[in-house]
Amino acid sequence: MTAPLTPPPPPHEHSAQGSWQPPAAGPAAPGSQHAEYAGHGWYGQDGPGMKTELREAAVIAVAVALSGLLLGVLWWWLAPHVPLVGDVVEKNWVVYLKDTEGEQGIGVDGTFTLLGLAFGAVSALVVFLLRRRGGVPLVVGLALGGLLGSLLAWRVGVWLGPAEDVIAHARAVGRGVTFDAPLKLGAKGALLAWPLAALVLHLGLMALFGPRDPEPEFAAGPYQEPSAANGR
């Protein structure tokens, strides 16, 4: 009598039980791994992705900075006027504040600060909607554009405002006549309102609504009920 032959195991028995065997690989060619990684821009010289991000950051910085023209016009239009009065003392013209207890000077700085915060929020929202993936070059371009826009708005507002030569202005209007002082930004820290607001809001939007890294997937074998023999 011939003993029964044992059938060979199925070819995918190990994979069905959830075990994994690393594929056999021969010796890699020297420099092949470095060439593959460098092709994807992981390390080494900047790949095409980084160059694209730098170009986009430069475009965003220029666009945000140019919007400072609008901020300068709004500052000139909305800022309160500081009244001055000219007089002649011993044949010399002097200029002094008409209302020494007025808070118009503080209002000028406050108006610029509030406008800078609003422009920072709008620019951060627009940049986030256009480029949701973010990136360090994008954030740097946004902050740099906000700072340049604040500087441009400051100079535009001063240029649009009353003449900076108050003595000549007092002589032109006459003695004892009230005229407006030139726009002056007393608190230079207001120039940072735009870039700081843009950075904070953009980082917040990225943290809440930005793209997420995919969850790692782990291969798991089929679940098997314990047999009666194993439970004893």
UniProtKB/TrEMBL annotation:
Residues 1-42 are annotated as: Disordered. Keywords: Membrane, Transmembrane, Transmembrane helix. The chain crosses the membrane at residues 57-78, 112-130, 137-156, 191-209. Residues 22-31 have a biased composition (Low complexity). Residues 1-10 have a biased composition (Pro residues). This is AAA family ATPase. It comes from Streptomyces cahuitamycinicus.
